[in-house]
């Protein structure tokens, strides 16, 4: 499956690589035929330490979520369900709360030392669009073993709105790694002593103290701003995911004003967009994963996207004093009362295989690099 010809300048030895791969190393994976597109990979798909994956034309409507058994291919699993085929070569509407499985344009033929995991892009997480990848013989979502050879598929469930998609759109991203190196508590403290990781909204470094917990940094919710967040509402209008900054936010979300008593009631099963009190900085030799569930903070999902590229809130050389993280929150079992500065999510810092030369926001095209509170997805015009 390897490409017959590759760029000699991009050849890289992956036999003993440590950390998550940078954009430069991911390019080398593509050039050496370890990532195989149906057609080609656009330059815009390369992010500082991830690769945007794109939808193919092949899609199926399913009666429910499926996972292949060990040793079973995804196509074999599809054959055992009443899957209704769809063709995404033209714009196609996907219904709210319905399960769809779509083949991705990018297949893998990874080296034995390289694995991958995937998660939502920020823009899709902020519209309550759940995506999870599956692969052949792998009975779990999102994680793909070292040396995996085969197709990738994406399960798509739009929780709040009807949507319109077509082949070529990107809803999620892949992170590739050798030996993963998640910073422990002591390493986080040491890094923070050298490069402060959390800042206040007034531009002052924050001492970590009790924020460090079990290989991650706890961050809290900000309910002390004019608009503390947004809540999704029922809408008869679909979201057209090939049209940016074109949807009226009033059709899809209600803004949430600052609560007078510092408390916010989140209703079970509803979807909220909030932001963190602390401003996060991700130095360019690290990436950050926001863990989707943190049971010590409450029974809710705190983030769909969960991945922050190197340079987020940091810049190319540390010139930024952090950026708040935006949270996609959905309470599950019960209604939830949040109070200002209550811990709400945990950030895990992961070393890269080297320092990326493509820091987040450095090209000026990142929609969320300058966010200063809760911000809707790039599909909406501003409130």
Give a verbal description of the structure:
This protein has 383 residues and is mainly beta. The chain folds into two domains: 8-177, Distorted Sandwich (Deoxyuridine 5'-Triphosphate Nucleotidohydrolase, Chain A), CATH 2.70.40.10; 185-351, Deoxyuridine 5'-Triphosphate Nucleotidohydrolase, Chain A. The chain is 8% helix and 34% strand. It has four helices and 28 strands. The protein has helices spanning 23-31, 74-79, 122-125, 185-194, and strands spanning 35-37, 46-47, 50-53, 55-62, 84-87, 92-94, 99-104, 106-109, 115-120, 129-135, 143-144, 149-150, 152-158, 163-165, 172-177, 198-199, 217-220, 227-232, 239-240, 253-257, 263-266, 272-280, 286-290, 300-301, 307-308, 323-331, 336-339, 343-351. The strands form seven sheets. Strands 16, 18, 20, 22, 24 and 26 form a six-stranded antiparallel β-sheet that branches. A five-stranded antiparallel β-sheet has the order 2-3-15-9-11. Strands 5-4-7-13-10 form a five-stranded antiparallel β-sheet, with no helix packed on it. Strand 2 and strand 3 (50-53) form a beta hairpin. The longest helix is centred in the middle third of the chain and has 10 residues, at 185-194. It is globular, with a radius of gyration of 20 Å. The protein starts with 22 loop residues before the first helix and ends in a 32-residue tail after the last strand. The model is unreliable at 1-10 (pLDDT under 50).
Based on the structure given, which CATH architecture of the largest domain is correct?
Distorted Sandwich
What structural class results from the helix and strand content? mainly beta
Percentage of residues assigned to helices = under 10%
The biggest beta sheet is recorded as:
6 strands, antiparallel
């Amino acid at each position: 499956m390897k490409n017959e010809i590759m760029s000699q300048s991009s050849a890289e030895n992956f036999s003993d690589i440590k950390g998550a791969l940078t954009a430069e190393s991911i390019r080398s994976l593509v050039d050496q035929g370890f990532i195989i597109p149906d057609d080609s990979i656009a330059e815009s798909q390369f992010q500082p330490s991830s690769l945007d994956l794109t939808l193919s034309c092949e899609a199926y409507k399913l009666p429910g979520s499926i996972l292949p058994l060990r040793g079973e291919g995804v196509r074999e699993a599809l054959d055992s369900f009443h899957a209704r085929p769809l063709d995404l070569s033209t714009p196609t509407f996907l219904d709210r709360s319905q399960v769809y499985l779509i083949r991705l344009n990018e297949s893998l033929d990874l080296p034995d030392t390289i694995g991958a995991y995937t998660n939502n892009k920020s823009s899709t997480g902020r519209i309550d669009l759940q995506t999870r990848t599956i692969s052949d013989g792998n009975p779990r979502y999102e994680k793909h073993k070292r040396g995996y050879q085969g197709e990738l598929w994406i399960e798509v469930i739009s929780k709040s709105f009807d949507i319109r998609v077509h082949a070529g759109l990107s809803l999620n991203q892949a992170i590739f790694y050798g030996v993963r190196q998640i910073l422990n508590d002591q390493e986080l403290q040491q890094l923070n002593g050298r490069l402060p990781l959390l800042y206040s909204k007034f531009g002052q470094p924050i001492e970590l103290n009790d924020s460090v917990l079990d290989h991650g940094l706890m961050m809290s919710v900000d309910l002390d701003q004019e608009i503390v967040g947004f809540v999704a509402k029922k809408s008869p209008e679909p979201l057209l995911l090939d049209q940016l900054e074109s949807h009226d936010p009033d059709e899809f979300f209600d803004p949430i004003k600052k609560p007078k008593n510092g408390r916010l009631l989140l209703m079970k099963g509803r979807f909220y967009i909030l932001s963190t009190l602390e401003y996060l900085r991700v130095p360019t030799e690290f990436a950050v994963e926001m863990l989707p569930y943190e049971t010590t903070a409450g029974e809710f999902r705190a983030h769909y996207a969960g991945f922050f590229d190197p340079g987020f809130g940091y810049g190319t050389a540390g010139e930024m004093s952090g950026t708040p993280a935006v949270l996609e929150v959905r309470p599950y079992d019960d209604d939830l009362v949040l109070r200002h500065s209550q811990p709400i999510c945990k950030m895990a810092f992961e070393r890269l295989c080297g320092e990326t030369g493509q820091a987040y926001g450095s090209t000026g095209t990142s929609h969320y690099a300058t966010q200063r509170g809760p911000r809707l997805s790039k599909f909406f015009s501003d409130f």
